[in-house]
Amino acid sequence: MSTKKKKPDAPHPHDELLRTDRMPHIWCTGCGIGTVFSCVLSAVEKSGTPLDDVAMVSGIGCTGRMAGYLKLDSFHTTHGRAIPFATGLKLARPQGCVIVASGDGDLLAIGGNHFIHAARRNLDLTVICVNNFNYGMTGGQLAPSTPFGARTTTSTQGCSEEPFNFCALAAACGAVYVARWTSLHIRRLTTSIGEAMNKRGFSFVEVLTPCPTSFGRHNKMRKPLELLKFYHERSVIRNYIDPKDAVLDFKKNLVVGKFVDIERPTFLDNYRLLNRGELGDWPDLEPKLPRPEKQASG
Amino acid sequence: MAGKAVLTGTYFMNGDEACCEGALAVGCRFFAGYPITPATEVAERMSWRLPEVGGIYIQMEDELASMAAILGASWGGVKAMTSTSGPGFSLMMENIGLGLCTETPCVVCNVQRAGPSTGLPTLVAQGDMMQARWGAHGHYEIIAIVPSSPQEMFDFTIRAFNLSEQYRLPVLIMADEVVGHMNERVVIPPADQIQVVSRKKPSVPPDQYRPYQPGPDGVAPMADFGDGYHMHVTGLTHDERGYPVMDAATQEQMINRIVSKIRDHAHQIISYDAIAMDDAEAAVVAYGISVRSARRAVAEARGRGIRAGLIKLNTVWPFPEEMIRDLAGRVRALVMPEINLGQMVRELERAAAGRCRVRLVPHAGGSIIRPGAIVQAVESALKEA
Which domain covers residue A65, as residue numbers? Predict the structure, then answer.
């Protein structure tokens, strides 16, 4: 997080959707979050969803600040709790389109339990995870996404833990749409976010982003342009492969693509079935015994 | 499966069930919770009653999520609540803080059991009174209501929702295991006799709306998601626009506002009943289930010629300081029974400020307080005084 910046003079093509009175933003030079934010704004505009019906919910961290710059109903909640907050918001107003945008630590470390259960329930949320492989805002600590061997301020000799494959996790938990891109895949990312917004159910889009300031400086990747080039050269697109095989290996390849796009009833679809008593049969191990004959009373 | 929200009639039901009916009667249409003894019956009843009235019941993965979900639902424009007990109440503190900072109306019912930690899951205590006051970090004011019967679980839940909507904050119902599990007569009045307060909505066009600009009553009108106001809501310290501002001046302004909106209306929020107090030399000041022990104790003391009376606190936070200060100048002793080793009695002592004797009748939890212990405390306090 850097501090002193000049207010930009030229208008931004997305000014309509931006809280321009809050600029300049807090993101560092070379950070990928701004690019992802831009793609979200493009997707929102292209989706044609009435703007009053779009809300963004985020948690805590660098990406968590996205909600604060969006000139729509936007909620900056507690660390890890963006998904459960969004759950209430969506169920209270089902016609609304609720986008959760947060970081890897927020969504999948402290918020991991909420993530897996929201996917299991197939809540109609669009979850965008900006994965910069570390906790950027607090200065670069190890996260559940930190690659094996990568250095952070809490793994100065290298990270000795294996990271999550977020896409495989989302798919295993029941997400109906799963995609991963880098912040360089602007067109594909924008398309994916749009598809995720239109998808009924739990949609997950992971975006690999450079964090030269916090991640890069400990891992010989401190030059933003070099880091972007690295992502560009290492990423390979493998659409519809099993997300378990969509491996992120900094020494070889970073597998990206659209992995899952399926149909499954949402939480509310099934809730309505329940209310109509149409959940279907359940095995009956207690067949009715013949009733004792009623004895006529005196 | 259309059902009635207000089940007008006379029932024999427990406090947890009465709490649900109060919530539904005042318009609650969203419940997110996690099973925990002795509050489970609230969730169980909500799980079939809410779908009947077109509401949503969702069982979350934990209490952190439950509390976050009701805040989200409230911003979606729906009256929302959760219920829990000790361990779950501890987990909810994080997002109770978010609710206080973002000024989100909602209701949390804590059916207290003995702690700390897992404690006595099925047995009564009143040990979370200070957690209710200060459990979330930072400085704030809170409203906590204490029912002493299933009927009050119904009545006070309605009041909890109305206060939360009026003052825009999470309101706590500090029930306990006995009140929650005890079956008694509960009278549900006709729908038109139930007072329903709903949050003030903004009356200005969106470009003039400042989400945290207070009205004359110190409370800002609240837009819901989808109203077209495009507001930003954050748990960071924020200005009247709702924008995060990281400095001491904004912090001072925000904290003073969320504190003042409660302090300035303390007289309207505080509720208590004075029973047999006209000629009382000693007042038993009780709340929650201990009110029931205290009623019996006062009757026994009167039977022995001791001039005892009862102050029954219906709200504990904000604490009725002025009333207690005044009372302490008129009686010789104040006696407080509570199922902890001294929590609200500290407030009592502070408000009495040495004007009369203050005695605690403590209990570590696991059963209610025997009336005899209260009578004894009244007698000895009057002898010493």
Answer: 30-275
